[in-house]
Structures are given as structure tokens and as C-alpha cells.
Specification:
single chain, alpha+beta, DNA-binding, TransReg_Diox_bact_type, XRE family transcriptional regulator, Cro/C1-type_HTH
Length: about 200
């Protein structure tokens, strides 16, 4: 599983992602430069990620997944061996739910549910106090999302003309999906945990 349990777990996770990103690129017959151009990241970053020298941030990983026409969940699950190889792909037990941690922000993403035979995905995110992450419009191109704040405070800004900002508290739900860059910010003194439910359009 893609877990970041200490230094050893982080190294293993980076290695799994590096191999999968390389495999996805080569399966499409792309060079590193081609992938970099499609994802909007530098060729040097692609090279370092594939060699396992750099752990991608949440933004970089979303850009790479989008270039492959995959959701972030799809890319992470392929890296860990694929949801289809589980004994019961309709059942997601807590011990089987992969986690991934953004090395830049401490943003932690837990894949609650994803299966190739089901149209919905569920993710749980924990955003540390004071942290923010801006996810690119491409990551919303083919999906609709419903966000449910479970604890803490979340400020979500949809970057359009003009920007639209939502201040959310525990229990609040927000549906969104029109492609645009989106900033998730925790303005509070405590970690914010929220769940996101995704459906392909």
C-alpha cells in the first residue's frame, strides 16, 4: 500500500510511484519531455520523480495523473497493485485503505473507496493548521465532487472570474466540479479533516 509510515514508508511509497509513473509514460510511448509538457511540470522534475530522487507534491501528482487521464486515486491504486486485485473490490476495509502524504504541506490523503466497477470514489483528507494547497483545473475536468467537512475549518476558493470563496465548518457540505484551480486552506488552529466523494461525468 502507498503509506507514509515514517522514513522507510516514505521511501517505499516514492519507489512505487516512480515505477508506476514510468510504466504509464512508457505504455503511451511518451518521452519524459512529452509527459512534462502534457502535465505542465518541468522535465527535470519528471526525471527526478522517476528515479525516486524526489517525492511529488499533491499538485505535481495531480498534474501527472491528469496527463495520463487518470484520477489521483487511479494512479495511486495502480502504484499499489490495483484495486482489482483485492479479494472483494466492493469492500474497502480500513486496513486496506492506502494513505499518501504531501511532503510539501503535510496534506494527508486516505483513499476510503475506489473500485473499477463502481462509479463513485471516496477520499478523506487531513489538512494541517495554517496549510494550503492549490489543485489545478485539470484535476476537475471529468469529475463532480461533494466535499463534507468532518472537523476543523476549511476555506475553499474557486479561482474563476471573480474568485468564489467558501468558509466551511464541521458538518458543512459543498458540491463543485466546474473545472478551475481550487485552493484548500485551513485558517484555523487545528487540523481540518474532510471527506470528498467523486463521480465521473
Amino acid at each position: 500500500m502507498i503509506r507514509n509510515d515514517g522514513e522507510e514508508g516514505a521511501v517505499q511509497a516514492a519507489g512505487q510511484l516512480a515505477r508506476q509513473i514510468t510504466a504509464e509514460r512508457e505504455a503511451r510511448g511518451w518521452t519524459q519531455a512529452t509527459l512534462a509538457g502534457r502535465a505542465g511540470v518541468s522535465k527535470a522534475a519528471v526525471s527526478r520523480i522517476e528515479r525516486g530522487e524526489m517525492s511529488p507534491t499533491a499538485v505535481t501528482l495531480l498534474r501527472l495523473a491528469g496527463a495520463f487521464d487518470l484520477t489521483l486515486a487511479g494512479l495511486l491504486l495502480r502504484a499499489e497493485g490495483g484495486a482489482g486485485e483485492r479479494e472483494h473490490e466492493r469492500l474497502s476495509r480500513a486496513a486496506q485503505q492506502p494513505e499518501w502524504r504531501d511532503p510539501a504541506t503535510g496534506y494527508t490523503r486516505r483513499q476510503l473507496f475506489a473500485a473499477p466497477t463502481h462509479p463513485l470514489e471516496a477520499v478523506q483528507v487531513t489538512l494541517p493548521a495554517g496549510a494550503s494547497v492549490t489543485l489545478p483545473a485539470r484535476s476537475y475536468a471529468h469529475i463532480q465532487q461533494l466535499l463534507w467537512v468532518q472537523s476543523g475549518e476549511l476555506r475553499l476558493t474557486e479561482h474563476r472570474a471573480p474568485d468564489l470563496t467558501w468558509d466551511l465548518a464541521a458538518g458543512d457540505c459543498l458540491g463543485f466540479g466546474t473545472p478551475c484551480d481550487v485552493t484548500f486552506e485551513n485558517p484555523g488552529p487545528h487540523p481540518c479533516t474532510y471527506a470528498v466523494f467523486l463521480a465521473r461525468r
